[in-house]
Design brief:
It is a single chain. The protein folds into two domains: about 350 residues, no CATH class; about 180 residues, IlvD/EDD C-terminal domain-like (Glucose Oxidase, domain 1), CATH 3.50.30. The protein contains 23 helices and 16 strands. The strands form four sheets. The protein has an eight-stranded mixed beta barrel with strand order 9-10-14-13-12-11-15-16. Strands 2-1-3-4 form a four-stranded parallel β-sheet, sandwiched between helices. Strands 5-6 form a two-stranded antiparallel sheet. β3, α8 and β4 form a beta-alpha-beta unit. The longest helix has 24 residues. About 55% of the residues are buried.
Length: about 600
Amino acid sequence: MNKQLINIKDRIEERSKDLRSSYLEKIKFSSEQSKSARDNMGCSNIAHAFASCDKAQQDQGANGGTVIGIVSAYNDMLSAHAPLKDYPDVIKNSSEKRNAIARVAGGVPAMCDGITQGEPGMELSLFSRDVIALSTAVAFSHNVFDAGICLGVCDKIVPGLVIGALSFGHFPIAMLPAGPMPTGISNEEKSANRKKYASGEIDRSALISSEQSAYHSSGTCTFYGTANTNQLIMEVMGLQLPSASFFQPNTKERELLIDKTVECILDLKEKDIKMGEMLDSKSWVNAIVGLIASGGSTNLAIHIIAMAEAGGFKITIEDIDEIASITPIIANVYPNGTADVNEFHNSGGVAAFIGSLLDGGYLFDDVQTLLGYGLGVYRNKLEIQDESLIWKDKSIILDQSIIRDINNPFRQTGGLKLINGNIGKGVIKTSALKNPDKVIKAPAVVFDDQEDVLKSFNEGELNKDLIIVVRGQGPSANGMPELHKLTSPLNVLQSKGFDIAIITDGRMSGASGSVPAVIHITPEAKNLGAIGLIHNDDLIELDIKKGTFKLLVENNILEKRTHTEINHSHQGIGRELFKSFREKVGSVETGASIFS
């Protein structure tokens, strides 16, 4: 095992000693309370709990039968979550044949960043994660459950489900995804059409036709953005079954994975293996390694910190940066490459990816998973034998242009990097950059809204070397929306040969990264961060290799400046309801959570 990873794991444990101890005491208390809850519950309460069951299950529930609570993010508005519609029936049937009861405990909201990108609703996106956590807690609060299964896929949904589930870490809980849609037009063609539209080469109807050819059926989007990064990380952590991430919906494998998940969660219940104890410091280090080695979404740098804290561990952006500095990138999936997740899956998939990392000593094998103790089985290929799933033979890499052996990585170090300087602290995704060692020194062009950036682009005002500053986009200001609409215009400018970068206290999409972007800057402008002191034409130097960015303005000049006042409209699309979230939310360094 890599010694530096062991040291980081030890450091996280030491830093988290008190928080973890408190968390374990909490789930121990909850476990003891839960064991007697149904016995001590009023007869009317019990009758209410199982009234919708048939008579046999009513009696079974009243007499202490095992009950699985299902929390679902199903809706048929979103392609990724539409396949979840039939999951509860499969789970119920699988439970019944194993002499257990399964009921849908509740639903959680699931919004799509692909729909809300650049729209006012995007300001609710990050906050929806904590709403989902709260909704998960409400669902499980009936306190009649012995185990749980959470159904969800996309950007904030999975982290929210995990945060909520960890509040019920006194029983075993599994995650179940839906799988990706079949491949449409290539990601390369899709990206090219977006650039053509941004530069005026094609019209809106042509772009819509292109997008509809990419996003065309039920299932997760096929690029490796936040949704699919979630799935890979859940698998690396053992919260999903091996190879559960990327089998497509409506396949035999997908149906059997649901059934097997029920079997495993009941087995963990019998062995008294609790989710909160199962996810230890090694699990979280494995999650970070999986994120880095796959070139995954920058959003997970926020979500992992928030999820880990819910389970009693304090992870810092410095931990993630250090792991990135020693972890090679062994996957080449769009936006880092041209392949999509279906091609990744067919090239050996998560199993081959995990196997390569295990061979190099980059993952802790001695962890608890849904399938038992040890991550080793997660490197094995899923097969169907006699209508059952087996994981027998090691998955091998079938296409070295998509997945690499640990001794032949695409890059020697990972795709996320911490950037420090007199502007604050931020992160940059380097895995999709053509030149990850670049130094950019250019004048600032400052904006308070991405629509103003687009207006300037369309008027030809950005055709030069520059560093675009978009401030007032942090969690406290407006919920930290992704600024994905800027990706195509920035790519156009970069393709013209200009030295381009962007720095912001907001987020970029999980599918971005081809333009140097220092994001998640903290302190944010709303909280008097130095990003709020930048003026147009100030020189900024970004040194990606060294991990620094500097505002090249004399201190005596900066001292005379006042922070820009951040005023956003919070009316409409439900934004007014989230005032308390904006006032309460923590910084991105603590996971941008209302709970920390």
